[in-house]
């Protein structure tokens, strides 16, 4: 840390198991070497050791034979390369058991190089036309319906006042509803509903693919009139997220599919670091995560930590919008607004489709949010 108190190195906090203090110190030193030069300490030239090898700054005991270590890395080892950032933070050591990344302190230089959201919460609110209240996103599903059937669902959800209708992350370019036909039909259906209601529902198609194809799909969606997109950030790659954020001018909503492979009690990357920091830094304007009480296993404390990381001050990066989903009950959205605050976009799918009238279900939900004191 320099004399101004600003973090100039990339500081990563790891937790791991160790027998005692010497063992813990040795393991921290091994992580610092493995993540940089991949050599034993006595094989590293002195100048390289000084400039390149990670610097162990602290090793502290926790409970149950676990230890915490803080290791500082030079930002020059990353540059503006997101894949290299992941490699530096958790590359080779991901194959070693019992290592958990629990926090990252970000130097402003690196944050500027990596970019972050193009729109953030304020930009999303401006697109939607909702300056203060909580936001609502309906999920278009299931895969297997035709493009015409999906468009009809879009129309009904838009008539009900959903702010955003996003493709389910499993809708890509399958024969029942090819990408181009689905985007054209669904965007037209939403625009038609908006003309009827005077509303401003947005349709976000799923463009997940390799970078080149994702960019092609995003360009097609933009030309069709879409104002945002969905991308599964890990299958597509975080650098694809960044390319989409920089090149398209569209709002980027990131889906957490595959993220569970990282989330273990004693190994991987903590959810608030992966979803709250890394997804945001990659350029996500909104980040979906599985809310407590749904089909998945996040605790409320974990969900709150993700929200905090997405919205906290982080250099000059814009805050990103938390988007909890994963089996959320529409009737409990006011409860979650109270818990998470209005700078949140709530994802609803199954609890809307379970009702006999999709438009009425969406309208009741929109009315709940509109009448809520936080709205």
Main attributes?
375 residues; elongated; 4-stranded parallel sheet
List the helices and strands and how they pair.
Layout: E1 10-17, H1 21-34, H2 46-51, E2 55-61, E3 66-73, H3 82-90, E4 99-105, H4 108-114, H5 120-128, E5 135-140, H6 147-159, E6 164-167, H7 179-197, E7 202-204, H8 211-224, E8 228-232, H9 233-236, H10 238-247, E9 251-255, E10 268-269, H11 271-282, E11 286-290, H12 300-311, E12 321-325, H13 333-340, E13 345-348, H14 350-353, H15 358-371
Structure, described:
The structure is a single chain. The two termini are 42 Å apart. Residues 1-6 have low confidence and may be disordered. Strand 5 (135-140), helix 6 (147-159) and strand 6 form a beta-alpha-beta unit. Helix 8 (211-224) runs parallel beside helix 10. The protein has a five-stranded mixed sheet. Strands 7-6-5-13 form a four-stranded parallel sheet, with helices on both faces. Strands 8-9-11-12 form a four-stranded parallel sheet. The longest helix has 19 residues, at 179-197. With 375 residues, the protein is an alpha/beta fold. Helices cover 41% and strands 18% of the residues. It contains 15 helices and 13 strands.
